[in-house]
């Protein structure tokens, strides 16, 4: 709807210019109002404070991994209004990000297999809709009731694109039956992983305060029995 409105306004402006150049009419047309209209129609829905915070983070040496690899991608969302079947119209928001240190990103990040395009132009909104709906395999919920359609095996398997095409940086389109969100991914190459010997490291344990919390079974233990200790997990 937004795209149609912008196209209509653009056509209207071109029509006025054409007729004016032919001398058939003289219309006063406020270009600034057209520009303001277009900007208002494309204004993000996020609060200004959130946008400013994200801009500060990115200006501080971080990169949005998705936008860095796919700056021209259209319609690539990670969340839709499932109650109104917006995923099947691909009207949503990209609210899930992987922010990476810029230097680290340049050294190790890779697009891999790229965006799920279903054989179409990966940057096009048509490809985004096809990816979100598994090229029509995923069906919307009926408005007469009954909820989300049952998850069929072929629809469940469709999310594992990496099995055939390889891993990638981008969006992993999980089935609508699992969540109104989908996953995001970042492919890293040539990263030296530290050995998993930090489980008893003091700094690691301080980062896991939940290990000292009581479990439900602790409330049923004898008072003179100290609660069981949990083993720390490396992060």
Automatic annotation (TrEMBL):
It comes from the Eukaryota. Gene3D superfamilies: Endonuclease/exonuclease/phosphatase. This is DNA-(Apurinic or apyrimidinic site) endonuclease 2 (AP endonuclease XTH2) (APEX nuclease 2) (APEX nuclease-like 2) (Apurinic-apyrimidinic endonuclease 2) (AP endonuclease 2). It comes from Durusdinium trenchii.
């Amino acid at each position: 709807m937004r795209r149609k409105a912008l196209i209509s306004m653009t056509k209207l402006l071109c029509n006025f210019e054409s007729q004016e150049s032919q001398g058939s009419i003289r219309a006063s047309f406020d270009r600034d109002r057209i520009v303001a209209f277009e900007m208002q129609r494309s204004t993000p829905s996020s609060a200004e404070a959130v946008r400013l915070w994200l801009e500060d983070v990115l200006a501080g040496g971080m990169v949005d991994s998705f936008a860095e690899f796919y700056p021209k991608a259209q319609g690539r969302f990670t969340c839709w209004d499932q109650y109104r079947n917006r995923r099947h119209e691909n009207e949503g928001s990209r609210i899930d990000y992987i922010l990476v240190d810029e230097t680290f990103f340049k050294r190790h990040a890779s697009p891999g297999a790229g965006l799920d395009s279903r054989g179409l132009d990966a940057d096009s909104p048509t490809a985004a809709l096809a990816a979100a709906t598994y090229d029509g395999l995923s069906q919307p919920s009926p408005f007469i009731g009954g909820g989300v359609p049952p998850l069929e095996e072929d629809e469940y398997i469709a999310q594992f694109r990496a099995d055939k095409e390889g891993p990638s940086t981008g969006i992993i389109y999980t089935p609508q039956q699992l969540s109104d969100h989908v996953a995001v991914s970042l492919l890293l190459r040539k990263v030296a992983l530290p050995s998993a010997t930090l489980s008893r490291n003091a700094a690691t344990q301080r980062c896991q305060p939940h290990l000292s919390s009581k479990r439900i079974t602790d409330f049923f233990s004898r008072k003179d029995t100290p609660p069981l200790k949990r083993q720390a997990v490396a992060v």
